[in-house]
């Protein structure tokens, strides 16, 4: 039995065998004041229905016969409920979950009053591979949001999506076919295989999402490879083209030789420890108008411009050298070669001296501006390489003169364009040198042998001044994890020149959670260069353009697009581009000339696919208007600042000038318990199913169930990276158990409560119950506030605090009245009324998270009317403004402080062996009544004080001249033991409440006898009922 530890913990194993009701209750009372840890355990015990049932059976069978208290057990209202302490998730959850799709459809037709809608636009996961905990985190956060909104009466729109195109799936498709065959595959075959693969993955992933209770339109998800989606995407592309945002141009792009395609910024990841070969190369000056250089040259000296680069393979493509007009440069002597002068930045001189191991005596200095017009010669190809002025040149590293290869650098390209210098980009799709570099390098990999060969060549030519390894940050292909290069090719771009500003303005109107996301996204968008949207792959949406064979000119206009869209609509979407020939794809008007055209072979960047989903899904399906409709929320991992959040923003700003979302919520990534980022390569990932269904060894990996997985998500502060591991789960389970205990107490205590018959009006509730309702009101307010702000961990925290506070005071106090009073006693019904409301609030706060448990609670709570519906069809909890009562709150907080001190005193007295249980004691409380009318308040509660303090007698007296206690530390004094007039020993404690009231508590052993029914020491004779119980029994008999 699970509760064995109670007895062991308490150090008295003998109790284990004594399961009579009385003994159990005695134990409970003992534990009640033996410290907080035991108090928690005591609740476990009390609420264990099996224990109580056993107690009952042993009582009713009269077993043992020696206990004369048994006859009264049947007159008590002990808690009864079939709500189990253990979730038993694996068996029970499947029986409890209301189908998430049915529920979604239900709210679509029923949550229509008030016109509140909630459009949650799903960021499509990639249709590739098994789901990991990151997926669970993402989808569950979304579902918590949606279920909360649904409970608050919103009509939720949530269409789950999948991102289907792109290289990883294309590669998987290749993998699935034998190599020799895949080489011969046509684009149409590749696309068919990729599509089948993606479809299979979607089915697998969907099954998992649904098993986690994610509510959504599972029968009509959006997939980016669906024809209607592709059509909408082309429409967006063409809208942007017509508005002048899309152009075709030669530009440097990030190129991945390992994927053989151009990459967008979002597809790069940076390796901080990339090691390059850095080289210093000298370029001989042939002409200059600089007086110092001219003078040296006329003396017969040879002058060289020294450049530095970390990409030696780009030297063959060098077309210029850049200097900064403002910087100071020095003409220095080469120590070891006669009549040899070098031009370097003055600022870099010291470090170059040490790098080169030369003195480099300065001959003259001048500004960069004075180098304008200087000509050098390319060391390998004997062509001019002019010196240009550029603001991008800084003196931070290298030589202060920048090697400029417009074919392989963004800034290089820009400055050469200004000077009409030709672009040379002698590298092919696979990253190999083309024949433009001459026979000695052609075919070599530029990131491998080609690089080494260039260095060797420069060395042989005597132009290599110095070479060293250089560790720096370098972009890699995020999929292949291999370095990329910059290459100038002909591509399609989105021109962002005029978009930056309006995009940043649009971001300012969005509520970002956490708020730091706003700056992050703005600065990323602000820095972004034109968006290259063409890819050289087959598995994607084609760029719908024809090229004239002769001129290479692109053909795209209203007629061609309308025709292509028509073909796509009729013939299965983008596949038709690959299946049909040019004549079919061209409109009537051009058909007779179709032989003059070829169709484009580029596909679109997958970020363009998903970035147009606001249009392809929300506009297409009539959920938002095309002109100015926005989704209420996008919620994804923080990496989407550079991905989907950004691509969606850019397409929407280009097409309509606004962001496509109202709220953008980001979450962090997963860490293991040691704080290490989870990754496949580290082997520290955790499958969601391990938490839900457990591992083969159930002791090591118990089956925690879906609600636990969801509770982990809800309890995590997702604004940062989140940890998970066995210890975190064990701690979480403790919290869940506490909540279940609390719920079980409420359900058990209300076993005979039917709100329609037994509810008490607010005005007739006892003050204590009103106080509890005030706490419930605050709980609802705070939890709602946090739910509204998407701060679920704070909502859960509020709930945990509430559960702890309410069970350690309110539940403790009302037990006596719930159990010993007659069924319809007004105090009892008053507390039951509050418990009923309280449970409704607690359950609704839990419901968006623990979808199964909350159905279970709901079924138990409303068992009197045999509920057939779901907790989610009941709307948010009912609460009333009148529950808010701050005055009462303060009063009762003073009593709680006083009660804590009483408990402390009782514990001391018990430790001394004077009493066994608190209700063997009576107490006298002297309190002041000046700044806080504590005395007045206590006397007004006189009839309930024994319950409040859980003792057999309470006397309250005014405290008119309390001793002065000084400072915080002296707020409560040590216990004094007095023995006045040689009578009974008194135990006394002095204290204060927040310096506003003082009290003195005196405790003594009760002189009365224990009542065999209620166990208060209030009977005049041994083994007889107390006066209260005599009356109660009369009521019960009536
Ligand atoms: Zn009694």
TrEMBL record:
Q: Where is the Aminoacyl-tRNA synthetase class Ia domain?
A: 103-724
List the EC numbers from the record: 6.1.1.5
Query: One GO cellular component from the entry?
Result: mitochondrion
What enzyme category does the UniProt record give? Answer: ligase
Pfam families noted in UniProt:
Anticodon_1, tRNA-synt_1
- Which domain of life does this protein belong to? Eukaryota
**Which molecular-function annotations from GO does this UniProt entry contain?**
aminoacyl-tRNA deacylase activity; ATP binding; isoleucine-tRNA ligase activity; tRNA binding
Keywords annotated in UniProt? Aminoacyl-tRNA synthetase, ATP-binding, Ligase, Nucleotide-binding, Protein biosynthesis
Q: Which residues form the Methionyl/Valyl/Leucyl/Isoleucyl-tRNA synthetase anticodon-binding domain?
A: 769-923
- Which BP terms does GO give this entry? isoleucyl-tRNA aminoacylation; mitochondrial translation
Family in the record = Belongs to the class-I aminoacyl-tRNA synthetase family.
Q: Which NCBIfam families match?
A: ileS
The record's annotation in HAMAP family points to: Ile_tRNA_synth_type1
| Protein name stated in the entry | isoleucine--tRNA ligase
Q: Which species does this protein come from?
A: Cavenderia fasciculata
């Amino acid at each position: 039995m699970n509760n064995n530890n109670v007895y062991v913990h308490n150090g008295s194993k003998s109790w284990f065998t004594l399961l009579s009701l009385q003994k159990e209750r005695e134990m409970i009372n003992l534990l009640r004041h033996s410290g907080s840890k035991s108090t928690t355990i005591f609740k476990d015990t009390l609420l264990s229905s099996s224990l109580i049932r056993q107690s009952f059976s042993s009582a009713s069978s009269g077993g043992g016969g020696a206990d004369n208290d048994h006859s009264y057990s049947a007159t008590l209202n002990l808690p009864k409920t079939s709500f189990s302490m253990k979730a038993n998730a694996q068996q029970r959850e499947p029986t409890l979950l209301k189908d998430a799709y049915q529920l979604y459809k239900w709210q679509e037709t029923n949550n229509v009053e008030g016109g509140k809608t909630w459009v949650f636009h799903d960021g499509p996961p990639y249709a590739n591979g098994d789901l990991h905990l990151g997926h669970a985190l993402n989808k569950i956060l979304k579902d918590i949001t949606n279920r909360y909104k649904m409970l608050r009466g919103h009509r939720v729109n949530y269409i789950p999506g999948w991102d289907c195109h792109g290289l990883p799936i294309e590669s998987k498709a290749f993998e699935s076919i034998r190599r020799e065959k895949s080489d011969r595959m046509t684009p149409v075959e590749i696309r068919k295989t990729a599509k089948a693969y993606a479809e299979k993955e979607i089915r697998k992933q969907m099954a998992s999402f649904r098993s986690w209770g994610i509510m959504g339109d599972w029968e009509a998800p959006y997939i980016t490879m669906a024809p209607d989606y592709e059509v909408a995407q082309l429409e967006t592309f063409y809208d942007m083209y017509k508005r002048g945002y899309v152009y075709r141009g030669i530009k440097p792009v990030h190129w991945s030789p390992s994927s053989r395609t151009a990459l967008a910024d979002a597809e790069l990841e940076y390796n901080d420890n990339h090691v390059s070969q850095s080289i210093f190369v000298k370029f001989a000056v042939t002409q200059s108008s600089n007086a110092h250089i001219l003078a040296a040259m006329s003396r017969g000296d040879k002058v060289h411009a020294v450049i530095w680069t970390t990409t030696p393979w780009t030297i063959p493509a060098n077309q210029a050298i850049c200097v900064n007009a403002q910087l100071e440069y020095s003409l220095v002597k080469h120590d070891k070669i006669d009549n040899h002068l070098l031009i370097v930045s003055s600022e870099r001189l010291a470090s170059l001296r040490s790098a080169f191991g030369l003195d480099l005596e300065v001959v003259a200095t001048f500004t960069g501006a004075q180098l304008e017009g200087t000509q050098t010669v390319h060391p390998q190809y004997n062509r001019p390489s002019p010196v240009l002025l550029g603001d991008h040149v800084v003196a931070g590293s290298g030589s202060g003169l920048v090697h400029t290869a417009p074919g392989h650098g963004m800034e290089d390209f820009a400055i050469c364009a200004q000077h009409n210098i030709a672009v040379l980009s002698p590298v092919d799709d696979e990253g190999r040198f083309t024949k433009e570099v001459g026979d000695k390098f052609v075919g070599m990999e530029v990131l491998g042998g080609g690089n080494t060969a260039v260095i060797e060549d420069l060395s042989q030519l005597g132009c290599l001044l110095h070479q060293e390894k250089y560790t720096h940050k370098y972009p890699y292909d995020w999929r292949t994890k291999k370095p990329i290069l910059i290459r100038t090719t002909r591509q399609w771009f989105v021109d962002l020149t005029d978009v930056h500003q309006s995009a940043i303005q649009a971001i300012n109107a969005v509520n970002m959670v956490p708020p730091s996301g706003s700056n992050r996204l703005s600065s990323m968008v602000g820095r972004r260069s034109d968006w290259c949207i063409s890819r050289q792959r087959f598995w994607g949406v084609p760029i719908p353009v024809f090229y004239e064979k002769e001129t290479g000119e692109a053909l795209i206009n209203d007629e061609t697009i309308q025709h292509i869209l028509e073909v796509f609509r009729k013939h299965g979407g983008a596949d038709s581009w690959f299946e049909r020939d040019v004549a079919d794809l061209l409109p009537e008007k051009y058909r007779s000339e179709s032989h003059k055209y070829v169709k484009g072979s580029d596909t679109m960047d997958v970020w363009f696919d998903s970035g147009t989903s606001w249009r392809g899904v929300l506009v297409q399906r009539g959920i938002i208007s095309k002109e100015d409709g926005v989704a209420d929320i996008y919620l994804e991992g923080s990496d989407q600042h550079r991905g989907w959040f950004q691509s969606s923003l850019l397409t929407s700003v280009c097409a309509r000038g606004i962001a496509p979302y109202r709220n953008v919520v980001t979450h962090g990534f997963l860490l293991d318990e040691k704080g290490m980022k989870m990754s496949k390569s580290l082997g520290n990932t955790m499958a969601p199913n391990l938490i839900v269904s457990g591992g083969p060894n159930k002791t090591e990996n118990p089956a925690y169930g879906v609600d636990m997985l969801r509770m982990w998500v809800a309890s995590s502060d997702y604004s940062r990276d989140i940890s998970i591991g066995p210890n975190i789960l064990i701690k979480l389970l403790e919290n869940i158990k506490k909540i279940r205990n609390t719920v079980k107490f409420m359900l058990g205590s209300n076993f005979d409560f039917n709100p329609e018959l037994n509810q008490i009006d607010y005005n007739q509730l006892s003050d204590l119950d009103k106080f509890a309702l005030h706490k419930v009101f605050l709980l609802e307010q705070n939890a709602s506030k946090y739910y509204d702000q998407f701060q679920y961990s704070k909502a859960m925290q509020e709930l945990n605090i509430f559960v702890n506070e309410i069970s350690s005071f309110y539940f403790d106090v009302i037990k006596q009245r719930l159990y010993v009073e007659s069924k319809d006693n007004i105090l009892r019904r008053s507390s039951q009324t509050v418990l009923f409301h309280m449970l409704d609030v607690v359950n609704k706060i839990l419901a968006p998270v623990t979808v199964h448990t909350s159905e279970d609670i709901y079924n138990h709570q409303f068992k009197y009317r045999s509920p057939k519906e779901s907790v989610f069809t009941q709307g948010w909890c009912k609460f009333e403004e009148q529950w808010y009562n701050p005055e009462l709150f303060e009063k009762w907080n003073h009593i709680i402080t006083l009660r804590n001190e009483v408990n402390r005193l009782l514990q001391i007295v018990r430790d001394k062996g004077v009493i066994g249980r608190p209700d063997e004691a009576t107490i006298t409380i002297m309190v002041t009544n000046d700044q806080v009318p504590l005395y007045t308040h206590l006397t007004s509660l006189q009839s309930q004080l024994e319950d409040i303090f859980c003792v057999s007698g309470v006397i309250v007296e005014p405290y008119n001249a309390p001793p002065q206690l000084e400072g915080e530390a002296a707020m409560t004094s040590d216990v004094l033991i007095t023995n006045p007039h040689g009578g009974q020993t008194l135990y006394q404690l002095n204290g204060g409440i927040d310096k506003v009231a003082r009290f003195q508590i005196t405790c003594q052993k009760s002189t009365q006898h224990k009542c065999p029914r209620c166990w208060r020491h209030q009977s005049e004779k041994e083994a007889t009922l107390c006066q209260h119980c005599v009356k109660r029994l009369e009521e019960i008999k009536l």
